Amino acid sequence: MLQIIKIEWLKVKTYRTFWILLGLAVIIIPASNLLVQDITSRIPKQVQSLLGTSAYDFPLVWQSVANVNSYTSAIFALLLLTLVTNEFTFKTHRQNVIDGWERKDFVFSKLFWVLALSVLAFVVSVLTALFFGFFYGTSAFNMEGFYYLGYYFLQILLSLCLALLTGILVKRAGLAIVLYLGYVMIFEQLLVVTLKRFWGSVGGLLPLQTADELLPFPLIGKMLPGVQQYDNMVYLIALLGYIAVALWLIFRRLLKADL
Amino acid sequence: MPILSLQNISKKYGPVQALSQVSFDVPPGSVFGILGPNGSGKTTLLSIVTDVLSADEGSFTLFDQQPSAKQRRNIGTLLETPNFYHYLSAYRNLQVVAGIKQRSEEDIPRVLELAGLTARQHSAFKTYSLGMKQRLAIASALLGDPDVLILDEPSNGLDPVGISEVRTLVKQLAQAGKTIIMASHLLDEVEKVCTHVAILRKGKLLLSGPVNAVITRDDFLEVGSADNKALKGVIEKHPAFLQLSVTPEGLLQVIFKEPVDPAALNNWCSQQGIWLSHLQVRRKSLETAFLELTNN
């Protein structure tokens, strides 16, 4: 595996697009939280006293950061889609195998990015939450609710697995990006709204919606009118199930199909 | 021990039967040409050997073992087109290849020099001409000095000098004892370098084995005199005469039942009162023999 990581590093070390997208994906985490913090700080004092606590106070800061970041996971997915579709555009996925990788080594090389980007997003999120909690919050440090960042980690892991699957199936960069963003930003949302309207809670079980259900925005999220929710464990199991299915499809496709 | 042994390999693309029950062995140290017209299945066959495609039926062994990535790491392969990361330089692309092949990066300058790319080694691949891309693919195949090379149309996109250089390189590699499996539709290329051939047509193996055994090309004598009509009458009376054809220039191309010494024929004609003004031993071109084989 170390050998595979070394080779992936060689592929991106001098790839400018990679570093620009990565920088953007990382910067947007604190930047979007700064924006949301600014908005929440403008909530009139009377309302704030009603809520009792601010979204960036410990321990709510973990949940707030996790929720805000879940909206920007698509940027990491774009980065992954670029890396994956590059291989198909340049036909280097074939060359890697011809030169002496097992097909599964190629899958591992891309799963490495899924994991590495997820861990990076998680670490940056933890640091962001700590910074906002200490800098903008008024409460003492508290780890309660840290598990929301765990949910966020799973959300980005699932987002990247779906992006990898899209890249492998579609192969062409432009089309893969349009299809992925179209699904994530519009199509799934439409499906969720429709299902929730006609069939109730089951709408919350669509792939990325499972994570959204696990990551409501603190305070406000619970005030929004919505349908009856399942227990968090149901969403968690569904989310892990989707990751497992995506991985199975990725392996099946790359191990069996003609390259 | 054959380097590569194919047993009944078949492959379909939808309704198209790309390969049908192909079997042959590549002996060690041979320069093995896989010949066939465009679309005959040459690249499909090599793609199966390199695990890019899966065969529908049949099996093959590499170095007498079940094929795996380990064996592929010991084979230098150029398949179809040069596949490299467009944004990386030649050197960095070869670093990736060396990493996958688990070979030392110290060999990179040698292969770049062999391919004539040293001066441009730090330019991005996307800035390369078609010929330079092909040269880099050859350099990549040579990386780590493998004992076996698979070269699919190695002179594709090269200028005449480049083609000649590749041919010389293949000969040198063959002399050094390497086994080279080379797909080509350029018969001239095969005729000049290959020791063995397999001929494919529409996915079927027509013949395989040593070049001269597979493509029998009888010698014939081309003769001419001041009066070719009279010469024709005389030649037809020769005891070993088999058949004769006339070239557009009026010369006679004569095939005998058994080898006939040109000096003896010259003597025989003079005894019949005909003085030859043209006498040459010739051989059927590989192209003619190949066309006869693949068209029938």
Shape of chain B: elongated
Which residue ranges of chain B are poorly predicted, with pLDDT under 50 across at least 5 consecutive positions?
A: none
**Structural class from helices and strands of chain B?**
alpha/beta
Number of domains of chain A: 1
Q: What's the architecture of the domain at 1-74 and 180-213 in chain B, going by CATH?
A: 3-Layer(aba) Sandwich
Please state how the strands of the largest beta sheet of chain B are arranged side by side.
5-6-7-3-8-9
Largest sheet of chain A: none
End-to-end CA span of chain A: 22 Å
> Biggest sheet of chain B, in brief?
6 strands, mixed
User: How much of the polypeptide of chain B forms β-strand, as a percent range?
Assistant: 25-35%
Structural class assignment of chain A = mainly alpha
Write down the CATH topology of the domain at 1-74 and 180-213 in chain B. Rossmann fold
User: If interface size is counted as residues with C-beta under 8 Å from the partner's C-beta, which chains form the largest one?
Assistant: A-B, 28 and 29 residues
| Number of distinct beta strands of chain A | 0
Strand content of chain A: under 5%
Q: What sort of overall outline of chain A do the alpha carbons produce when their principal axes are compared?
A: globular
In short:
The complex is a heterodimer of chains A (259) and B (296). With 259 residues, chain A is mainly α.
Characterize the structure shown.
The complex is a heterodimer of chains A (259) and B (296). Chain A is an all-alpha fold. Chain A has one domain (2-256). Chain A has twelve helices and no strands. Chain A has helices at 2-12, 16-41, 45-51, 60-70, 73-89, 92-99, 103-135, 147-170, 173-199, 207-214, 220-223, 232-256. The longest helix of chain A is centred in the middle third of the chain and has 33 residues, at 103-135. The model of chain A has no long low-confidence stretch (mean pLDDT 90). With 296 residues, chain B is of the alpha/beta class. Helices cover 33% and strands 29% of the residues of chain B. In chain B, strand 11 and strand 12 form a beta hairpin. Among the domains of chain B are: 1-74 and 180-213, P-loop containing nucleotide triphosphate hydrolases (Rossmann fold, 3-Layer(aba) Sandwich), CATH 3.40.50; 219-295, Alpha-Beta Plaits. Chains A and B meet through helix 1 and helix 6 of A and helix 2 and helix 3 of B. Chain A: This is ABC transporter permease subunit. Chain A: The chain crosses the membrane at residues 18-36, 71-90, 111-136, 148-170, 177-199, 233-251. Chain A: It holds the Pfam family ABC2_membrane_4. Chain A: It comes from Chitinophaga oryziterrae. Chain A: Keywords: Membrane, Transmembrane, Transmembrane helix.
